[in-house]
Amino acid sequence: MATLLHDIGHAPFSHASEDVMPYCDKLNRPYKHEDYSSAIIIGPLRGVIEDHQINKSNYRIGADEVAALLEGDISILEGKLFWKVIISSQLDADRGDYLLRDSHHIGVKYGIYDYSRLLNTLVLGVDPETNELILGGHEGGWHVAESLVIARYQMFTQVYFHKTRRAYDYHLKEALGKILEDGKLPPPREIDEFLSLDDMGILQGAKSHTGDFNCKALLNRGHVKVAFATPETPTEKDEQKLEDAKKRLKDTGIWFYEDKAASGLWYKLDTEEENKEIMIIKGRDREASPLSTYSSIAKNMDEVKQIRVYVKPEDKEKAVGVVQQ
Amino acid sequence: MSESIFKNPAIIGYLVKKLHEAYPDKQIGKTLVQKMIYFLTRERIVNFNYSMYHYGPYSADVTSELNFAENSGLIDIKWVDGAGYFAEATPGLKKLEGLIQDSEKSAIDKLIGRFGSFSTVDLSLLATAYFMKDNFGTPNEKLADVIHNLKPRYSTSYIRGVLEKGGITSRR
User: Fold this and answer.
1) How far is A295 from chain B (nearest CA, A)?
2) In terms of CA atoms, which chain A residue is nearest residue B144?
3) Nearest 5°: CA angle at A171, between A21 and A235?
4) What is the pLDDT of residues A140-186, one digit of tens each?
């Protein structure tokens, strides 16, 4: 149930609106969509979960338990928190689903891997650093684990971090700031107000701000364009080139936006997913070793930290010339 | 100039280097780094997003920065079967140490003074206690029981001892 409901707290336009979630003083951080998921589960969905006949007569799962799994509240769940690995880990059900589903709906093949084989190779092992139980892949199935890592990398670089998709994340974030009251979404304690917001309402709101650059970009597809980008894994020299490019744009008076979200995006797209390596489990002792000790592909996969500099569409040609000087 | 993308990897590298200097025989694995960075996050020296798992608070962002620190030649990470990861700072860290402010260095040094001698398992217990206090308001007197219920193989008295030694609770 937690797996089904963990993303129910997404705001309009999903991850793009995460940046307009208000700050929570108690938690010393902005709210996350998981906080809204919990508020919906223990609020409007409590009766649906707890009064459902099948749940009442079989499982007796409480809404608080479902929310506790998402929040990590061990005072409610105790050892059952282990099962969070099904929602959020390198081998979680969410990732198992979305890579294939997104590939299908977008019409690409990057996210395709052998799902059935992966399921058949899932086993439990022991992490030698902590002696904790971990979910991993059986030694005989390390190639399918490798294919999952490749699928994730391809989907990230070719789809989720695509330059145009990221441009619209920017426009959506800025437009939401304009359209929403106080520029922020209502907090989880005002869950009914939050639930009244949807994609269509936001687009309608954009129509009321046609003079705004970002609302206009959304409505007329006049999105910002890339004038400069670092390699996927930048070096110090690349960072220096980036700073030089930004300085030149600034000196020329060209407006720009710097998108540094590549690394944060792994996290955001995968909700609370772990960025840990997939562990391969072998032998009777269920000894765990990282996939990179088996796969030279996984071993040589670097972190994607690409940074892009966007400019207004009408400035693109001039900006590219300026940064290439 | 905006903050360098090498700032967090440099902080991680500095933490690994100083831990190694203070405790040359200690295994500095990825889990240990995760927990130490969690304590630095609590003190707002760094800003990472942590979620709770059965093995304690964990941040995917920290893992990403740890991997980037390795990709950028600031630390070496090796895997030893049956023991886990071993991280060590490289000479490449030196040229990026300038990105770390003196106040950040001093906070890391202080952190190592307070928690550096703890084992990875004990750091995990301490981080779990802090997460429960900070996020769910679990009172001090209940922390050991709550953690024991999550990790029954550690007795309540053992957990209580670790929490006292770590300064989270005081001896009754």
Assistant:
1) 14
2) A75
3) 90
4) 999 999 999 999 999 999 999 999 999 999 999 999 999 998 999 99
Could you tell me if the ipTM is greater than 0.85? yes
Interchain CB distance below 8 Å, B152 and A79:
yes
What letters, b where the CB count within 10 A reaches 16 and e where it falls short, cover A227-252? Answer: bbbbeebbeeebbebbeebbebbeee
* Statement to judge: residues B87 and B169 lie in one domain: no
Domain of B141 in residue numbering reads as 118-172
Q: Are residues B91 and B143 in the same domain?
A: no
Verify that B99 and B124 share a domain, yes or no.
no
Are both B56 and B69 inside the same structural domain?
Answer: yes
Window 160-219 of A: residues touching B by CB (8 A cutoff) are none
Closest-CA residue to B92 (of B66, B77, B74): B74
The beta-carbon neighbor of A84 closest among B30, B53, B152 is B53
Q: Are B89 and B168 in the same domain?
A: no
Contact across the interface for A275 and B63, Cβ inside 8 Å: yes
Distance from the Cα of B171 to chain A's closest Cα (Å) equals 22
A238 shares contact with chain B (CB less than 8 Å): no
How many structural domains is chain B composed of?
Answer: 2
Q: At a CB cut-off of 8 Å and minimum separation 6, what does A181 contact?
A: none
Do B15 and B92 fall into the same domain? yes
